[in-house]
Amino acid sequence: MTTNLQLAVGGQRVTGDPVRTQNVLACAAISNVIKSSLGPIGLDKMLVDDIGDVTVTNDGATILKLLEVEHPAAKVLVDLAQLQDEEVGDGTTTVVLIAAELLRNADELVKCKIHPTSVISGYRLACKEACKYIQEYLTLNVDELGKDCVVNAVKTALSSKVIGGDESDFFSNLVVEAAMAVRFPKADDKTQFVYPIKNIRILKAMGKSTKESLIVHGYALNCMIAHQFIHNLKLTISICLAMPKSIKNAKIACLDFSLQKVKMKLGVQVLISDPEKLEAVRQKENDIIKERIQKIVAAGANVILTTGSIDEQCSKYMIEAGIMGVRRVKKQDLKRIAKATGATLLMSLSNMEGDETFETTMLGEAEEVYVERISDDECILIKGTKNQNAASLILRGPNEYFLDEMERSIHDSLCVVKRVMESKKVVPGGGAVEAALSIYLESFATTISSREQLAIAEFAKSLLVIPKTLATNAAKDATDLVAKLRAYHNSSQTKKEHIHLKWVGLDLSEGAIRDSVKAGVLEPSMSKIKSLKFATEAAITILRIDDLIKMEPQKEDRKYGGCMDEE
Ligand SMILES: Nc1ncnc2c1ncn2[C@@H]1O[C@H](COP(=O)(O)OP(=O)(O)OP(=O)(O)O)[C@@H](O)[C@H]1O
Ligand SMILES: [Mg+2]
């Protein structure tokens, strides 16, 4: 079967079983790396990149991003896991573990002379059936479970993270509050809400304890107006005092250019024959920017936010007009502010005719813009924005690594709130869904009389990797616990009077079995369904490969570096 031929194009070709086995091994290697980070008692990874930056994390997506995987098949797996992170926000580790296990079992089947096409179609069927089963029998409606349900789902997502211990109560409430603060009703159905979690800004401030993190209603910018005018000490003091620190009924202009004296572009020469005209040219340079500011002010603006700088001359004009100017706002922030307040982000004031104009419709509105001291820094807060609300979370923590990991965990949990609240559906966690599906698919397999039966049975077996890994990571007897779990689910599916046992999952701290719904271990159903789909997709993509053609890397140019090489 194996052929290793040298292609005429200067590449290498591997075909047949070895390439599949090679790919499966590469994926297994990836899954082995992140295996121990799954679950509430999972461990963290420390990654150091080529310039020495350290990241300590438990988040599957971050680990995969930093691993810089080179193997082409393993890359497919990493890409699909990243997709899970983008689309759902949580469950990346699960995708990789299931996909690697599916591949391992498929490889065994192929070695037993089952054609990969049969395995693939079996996996497809099993995945479809599994998703249907989750939707029909294993989902719970959030409204039935009460309002604690969302907080519990967040707690489950946080349980494996740095802030998942004693602080999980505090943070889950904080995250839910932030998500509630930014929600707005859908245009077509006013009873349904949209949760634009991108409107929640996360700021990190080193120092104090994690529980001193706080939520601020409004868009917090860590720019300071007092800092704007530091040029010389005397000037700073006089200007800072004159600058308004709070503006009610703010009309905001969002600019993506600097407000400073106009200088001629490099290479432009102005030749003046009459020395008396020199002063007039200088004056005109000053006037251009003055006119710009006057136009903005005349349109009714009382706050100017810019991504560029504001020089002293301009700030003087602003102070005279009694308006607030903030410089060096990050472009991404300004885009979001523009969206939330209804402003237009302007690259320049020029219009189609070549004149400079500024219209009132370009202004955004907010109830209030003011400077507030939050923890050790001064922030500018924009409250009561016209189109969409915004909230900011200010995280406190002992060091940089901790704060970065906190931010990632908060991001995961915000995604969970969004998914739970928008779809209103949750499933039990702690391996309950996987165990239920494995029992169901095993019996489903026996109803299929073709070769796919074997593949479906393997799919069922592969899902057990999740409860097994959860138990192993918690230092419990995995074989024993998973057997018990399966026994419960089997009886829930075969005996009518035991149907309530379908919510049974693992209790990892006690090493026992418990009702996951009662214990409040819940996950968004979308996260489970998507992770199954992505894992199957990844496994199928890799299984389909039976030929690997690799070009030889181009020979290095030895002209310059050659002197270092040995002859
Ligand atoms: N308290 C708990 N008891 C039992 N199982 C739990 C508990 N909390 C979470 N789990 C389980 O842990 C798993 C999630 O672990 P984890 O968050 O580490 O991985 P992930 O969500 O797949 O990946 P990531 O969060 O890195 O994107 C889920 O299967 C979930 O059911
Ligand atoms: Mg998670």
TrEMBL record:
Subcellular location per the Swiss-Prot or TrEMBL entry: Cytoplasm
The keyword Phosphoprotein is assigned to this record: no
Superkingdom, natural source: Eukaryota
A Pfam family of this chain: Cpn60_TCP1
Spans traversing the lipid bilayer: none
A Gene Ontology term for the protein's cellular component: cytoplasm
Keywords annotated in UniProt: ATP-binding, Chaperone, Cytoplasm, Nucleotide-binding
Recorded family membership: Belongs to the TCP-1 chaperonin family.
Name assigned to this protein: T-complex protein 1 subunit alpha
Native source organism of the sequence: Leptotrombidium deliense
